[in-house]
Amino acid sequence: MCKNCKFKKNKNEAEQNFSPKDLISFRINNGRYFITNKLNDNLVFIEKVISGKLNIYYFEDLKNNKYFLSKEDGKLEEIPYKEGIIEKMRKLFSKNQ
Question: Domain span at residue 38?
Answer without folding.
Answer: 5-96
